[in-house]
Amino acid sequence: MDVEVGGDGESPATGKCFARCLPRETSNSSFRRDFILAYKTLGVVFGGLVTSPLYVYPSMNLESPTEEDYLGIYSIMFWTLTLIGVVKYICIALNADDNGEGGTFALYSLLCKHINIGSLQSKSVNSRTIFSYSDGALATETRNKLGKFLEKNIIAQRIVLFIAMSGVCMLIGDGILTPAISVLSAIEGLRGPFPSVSKVVVEGLSIAVLLALFLLQKHGTSRVSFLFSPIMGAWTFTTPIIGLYSLLKYYPSIFKALSPHYIVHFFLRNKSKGWQLLGGTILCITGAEAMFADLGHFNKRSIQMAFLLTIYPSLILTYAGQTAYLIRHLNDHSDGFYKFVPNGVYWPMFIIATLAAIVASQSLISASFSVIKQSLLLDYFPRVRIIHTSQNKEGEVYSPETNYILMVLCVVIILYFGDGKDIGNAFGVVVILVMLITTILLTIVMIIIWRTPIIIAMLYFVPFFIMEGVYTSAVFTKIPQGGWIPFAISIILAAVMFSWHYGRQRKLEYEMKNKIPIDCLDELLSTPEIQRVAGICFFYNKIEDGITPLFGHYLKTMRSLHKVTIFVTLRYLLVAKVDSNERIIIRKLGIDGVYECVIHCGFADSIAWEGDHFFIEIRDSLEKHIKMNSGEFSRHIEEENSELENAKKDGVVHVRGKANFHISKSTILFDKILLGFYQFLHGNCRSALPNMGIPLHQRVEFGMLYET
């Protein structure tokens, strides 16, 4: 059987040994499990992809189309679905997972774990234990030229980081446009039997549906998620049946369009107009990136089965039926979906389409929450509130700020564009750009990590880069027609992420340069001005192998220190999850009651320690430390535990310094802009302590200025 290692935090070695002790599953039971998972993926992973027939043809600005034009368009969509959907994502990209997680951040994570470009990684972290999630991490002397170049060139590192950030931002942009275009295109079906229904009514109903959907997000998706798969299953199995009926009735020879020569003739006949129409055909593959990004929710085999056995043939037949109908009704392309639905099943299909659009919207909204959470844990995004809405599913999260911003933007998109056809102009921008970004990062992963020969890597990179590059050039012509909106949103989000990351790194550099050596801590605390007071203090420290200069400022100001002081460093790693045995590393600093504690968190880990849970984890980790470093286990453990318990009874306080940059006239312009923007973001985001579930009465914050 296939063993998924690390999905629940175990290291590869542990996971493999554990797997050997388990009874081996039969092929039938393994297939049955994957088949059930494949069915469940319909409601989570493929929402945007399977609803694309609603808006692909309406998004094309066709003028006096002919039979040959439709055959060429169908050929383009078939080969786009086959090459990008099947070859690129199903056969290649799904293999580039990071500990079971997918998406652009997973690709960047893989690179950071194999070459030294991840500035968030601490050089003092035990790479053998923490980075063991990727078997066979490359030693320095075995890295190829590209890996060495990236390690030495800070500009190249920032370019790769910005590319990865842009991919995440494009996915968030997808979360804004998918709800708008899916729901609006579905509701527009009312205008078929009721032409008197105005555009304003359709917009109003679409906004009402979206407002209800966004307002229900705070309750989580668990209560209604059992409906997702049946809804998407109904949609996936009914649309190809109608497509088969339509192609047999109107144009049985439609599959002759699978010959690529129809594509060549299409461009020779339409020239620049045909190139511009690519901005609409690319929408047939929208949602393909979600297959990769949602890899962490399901295993690779289940996604491959769901796509190849249901989604892919469903889309091929549905588009074939739509095209066959349009060949016999050349000017009905403005409503390419509902027009080809037979009258007898029109209203059932309208209901199914509307429900499918809602599920598709939900899947992209949830994905946006997950991406924001990952970015937040990696310290690439200003702090927002993250709420876990399920006790059983750690990945089910909700962010109020993100939710309401998405809601407002979706409403604005509908009011600005008015119908699904115009939104398609904007939609194509984010769809193709995130795919192009994945192609670039995946090629780098191939060369550096997979050690793919450069010729073979180019056989992947060149065709897909050219294909997606041509699509990109086509959708860029739509920027004046509304495509600038998602592009602008993504650029703003990328600027926010990059500025936040740059500001955090500059702070870290200052603290590393001005840190208090641990060897000097005893001398600093032995001065008569410093008094030891009862209680336990968790002092949050951003660096390892030293103490933040904020602590020196704190001592000068307060002139006291708690009898038990634990310097806590939260280390966010570019892995999905950290093994529970490696999560907390604690050691004594040679001074009574003073400890150093490093807490490692992956981007899929929860970092909320409410009640006594945090204290218990610290105590248990301290016991392990004493057992490993002391010969008199019981006496030392009893003494340390007694000291901790007494200090806890006297009171617990969490101290966090809040540093700002002093931007002077001598500061360079680049720093003035980025650090000034960072100061603005930092001053308006949430504090780190409330996000960890620490009670208000236990929190202490103080400020200090850092020189630039």
UniProtKB/TrEMBL annotation:
The keyword Transmembrane applies. Coiled coil: none annotated. Pfam families: K_trans, K_trans_C. It is found in: Membrane. One of its GO terms (cellular component) is membrane. It is a multi-pass membrane protein. This is Potassium transporter.
